[in-house]
Amino acid sequence: MALEKICGFNNLPFMKGDLNMEYADVAIKMAKTNLNDPYTLLAPPFDNPVVSLNKILAEKKIQLNLTHGTTTLGFKYRGGIILCADSRATVNDTIATENSKKIVELDKCLLGTIAGCAGDCVHWHRELTSECRLYRLQNGDKNIPVTTASKFMHNVVNRFLGMGLSMGLILAGYDPQPDGAKLIYVNHEGDRIEGNLFAVGSGSSYALGVLDHGYNWEMCDEEAFDLARRALYNAISSDPCSGGCIQLYHITEDGWKIVATEDCQQFTNIQPEFVVPMDVDDDVSMPID
After folding, report:
1. DSSP letter at 272?
2. Residues 272, 232: contact at Cβ < 8 Å?
3. Any bridge partners for residue 284, and if so which?
4. Are β-strands 89-91 and 80-85 bridged in parallel, bridged antiparallel, or unpaired?
């Protein structure tokens, strides 16, 4: 019964006394489209939903575009790739949880960060994980290239431009030589950007202040770990939508490892650095090549 309600089957006509089985079969097929094919999402049931949906929401005074908050970052250096993220999930002014996992383990040598709407990010990262496993089965246990994974996500978001997706993903890993380390940013507006450093989310401006000042390609591992911690803590201390734990991952040619999952409260001895004005666009990812 619970699954029926979640999937919306309880609202179908045949569940309310209509025993027309031919119609019921058609209704079920329509209602479970996304269950059969995760790449086919049901669009709103009216013409031109990209335009019409916003008009209907305005007329009904419904707020669909809720504000989100997070901070995720990633950068390359001579010792590999660093990914770091907070763990707070928010909806408008409400803290939903302090234990959200924002760095997703997609494959042996591929990680991704999530920022935006949790439902969108989790759904498509789950599908990307499935594609990674399928690629491994079809190609003799080889890792999926980061470029291929990013193009998969890029194609997905381009199919649903203007349909309400909210995602900002950083994909990181190692492609076969001579390509090597890859760090690629993909978002719901159809952007796909490769670079050496990214920060995404409401706290990205604060993190970038520290990263831009302290980033050095020749850093050793400990210096890179410390830079990521300081950048994220600077964001957490200045952005109320970021918080919880600091999740830190390190990726090399041999794969990824979890460096630490630490409560941000233990870094209160670190003084915030390079705090930027609040009127800076709080949802921008900035690459540094």
Report:
1. P
2. no
3. none
4. unpaired
Would you please indicate which residues are annotated as catalytic (active-site) residues?
Answer: 70
Q: Over range 113-139, report the average pLDDT.
A: 86
Q: How far is CA 52 from the centre of its chain?
A: 27
Rounded CA gap, 224 and 229, in Å? 9
Q: Which two tokens stand for residue 52?
A: 């019409």
Integer Cα distance of 145 and 152 in angstroms: 11
Element (H, E) at 120: helix 118-138
Q: How far apart are CA 79 and CA 217, in angstroms?
A: 9
User: Residue with structure tokens 């999402």?
Assistant: 41
User: pLDDT tens across 76-100, in order?
Assistant: 999 999 999 999 888 777 788 888 8
Residue bearing tokens 């734990």: 245
Cα separation, 268 vs 124, whole angstroms: 35
Degrees, nearest 5: CA angle 178-184-187: 155
Residue 4 has pLDDT above 60, yes or no: no
Q: Is the peptide bond before 49 cis (omega within 30 degrees of 0)?
A: no
**74-78, 149-153, 210-214, 280-284: least confidently modelled range:** 280-284
Give the chain's length: 289
State the residue for tokens 């383990």.
105
Residues contacting residue 223 through CB under 8 Å, at least 6 positions apart: 216
- Both tokens of residue 264? 């941000």
Quote the tokens at residue 21: 């089985």
User: pTM surpassing 0.90?
Assistant: no
Band (289; pLDDT cuts 50, 70, 90): very low
**Integer angstrom CA distances of residue 74 from 108, 159, 238:** 18, 26, 19
